Amino acid sequence: MITVEHLARQFTAPAAGKRGLSFKRAAPQVVKAVQDVSFTAPDGRITGLLGPNGAGKTTSLRMLAGLITPDAGRMSVDGIDVVARPREALSRMGVLSDARGLYPRLTARENIVYYGSLHGLSRDAANARAETLAAMLEMTPLLDRRTDGFSQGERMKTALARALVHDPANIVLDEPTNGLDVLATRALRDALRYLRTPEGGGKCIVFSTHIMQEVERLCDSVVVVSHGRTVASGSVAELLAQTREQDFEEAFVKLAFAEEAARHLQEVKA
Ligand SMILES: Nc1ncnc2c1ncn2[C@@H]1O[C@H](COP(=O)(O)OP(=O)(O)OP(=O)(O)O)[C@@H](O)[C@H]1O
């Protein structure tokens, strides 16, 4: 189970070059990437972080994966605080981050087995896991090819198998269907559906996306993130009821862009 409470993180974007002829540097800009993101993702459920571009999804997941530290807020994985006990928390998570970062000179199998050994698996155990995961992700023919030259979808599958090699109870995926064709997307969806079942281990699965259909098809629970904040959460049916919409896209636009809509209304009235 993953719990995230009032997470916040800002960045200072580097100053632009010299402005005009004044030879003065523009001031660095503060970007409030994440301002107040909270959610709970239970075991045996798929929780989707849904938000428009730039909403703060990737930054939230990077903090959860221990890649960057939060300015404020708390995150725990199976009750273990990610900031205070990062190694313990990370060992319970399989993370597919935005940077897939495979070793191009290694085969898919070697990439997966190497990660297994980093997690303390024996070579044989890691190899057996690589075979099982390859079958699940429909990538067996790829196993013994060097990842150099892999297509985006092939790289994603390899990175996902690598993230799952230690059979983590919690799975965190940043835009996992990015660049996948329809068959690969279906294979991934089926794999995630299986992983949440008791036979698949009843995993806690969190993934980010800006694709509404993805959420409707897959998620038990949706967390809508906009401008760095959680603005709504619940099942698709609950969010439809809350917004009194029939169509999930309409519901999402209402929830995610409520501020813009209110501002626009004020401007029109003025
Ligand atoms: N290292 C950084 N330095 C400066 N700004 C950053 C940095 N990382 C993220 N941001 C900014 O923070 C905001 C949130 O970015 P983030 O990548 O978390 O959004 P996202 O919801 O994942 O968007 P997308 O769906 O487009 O991937 C954006 O405005 C982005 O430009």
What does this protein structure show overall?
The chain is an alpha/beta fold. The protein folds into two domains: 1-9 and 29-92 and 170-270, P-loop containing nucleotide triphosphate hydrolases (Rossmann fold), CATH 3.40.50.300; 102-167, no CATH class. It is 38% helix and 26% strand. It has ten helices and twelve strands. The chain has a six-stranded mixed β-sheet with strand order 8-9-10-5-11-12, sandwiched between helices. β2 (18-19) and β3 form a beta hairpin. α3 (108-118) packs across α4 (123-136), α3 packs parallel to α5 and α8 (236-243) packs across α9 (248-256). The termini are far apart. Adenosine-5'-triphosphate is lined by residues 11, 13, 31, 33, 51, 53-59, 210. One of its GO terms (molecular function) is ATP binding. This is ATP-binding cassette domain-containing protein.
Task: Give the secondary structure arrangement, pairings included.
Layout (H helix, E strand, L loop, with lengths): L1 E12 L4 E2 L4 E2 L3 E13 L3 E6 L6 H8 L7 E6 L2 E2 L4 H6 L1 E4 L11 H11 L4 H14 L15 H12 L6 E5 L7 H15 L7 E6 L2 H7 L2 E6 L2 E6 L1 H8 L4 H9 L1 H12 L1
Parallel strand pairs: 5-10, 5-11, 8-9, 9-10
Antiparallel strand pairs: 1-4, 1-6, 2-3, 6-7, 11-12
Helix pairs in contact: 3-4, 3-5, 8-9
Any low-confidence stretches, pLDDT <50, length ≥5? none
Order of helices and strands: EEEEEHEEHEHHHEHEHEEHHH
Number of strands: 12
Backbone CA Rg = 20 Å
Q: How confident is the prediction overall: mean pLDDT?
A: 90
Largest sheet: 6 strands, mixed
Shape: globular
Ions, cofactors and other ligands present here are: adenosine-5'-triphosphate
Number of helices: 10
Q: Please report which band the strand proportion falls in: under 5%, 5-15%, 15-25%, 25-35%, 35-45% or over 45%.
A: 25-35%
Strand order of the largest sheet: 8-9-10-5-11-12
CATH fold-level assignment of the largest domain: Rossmann fold
CATH architecture of the largest domain: 3-Layer(aba) Sandwich
Q: CATH H level of the largest domain: which superfamily?
A: P-loop containing nucleotide triphosphate hydrolases
| CATH top level assignment of the largest domain | Alpha Beta
Q: Helical content, roughly? A: 25-40%
Distance between the termini: 48 Å
GO molecular function, one term: ATP hydrolysis activity
Domain ABC transporter: 18-252
InterPro entries: AAA+_ATPase (IPR003593), ABC_transporter-like_ATP-bd (IPR003439), ABC_transporter_ATP-binding (IPR050763), P-loop_NTPase (IPR027417)
Keywords: ATP-binding, Cell membrane, Membrane, Nodulation, Nucleotide-binding, Transport
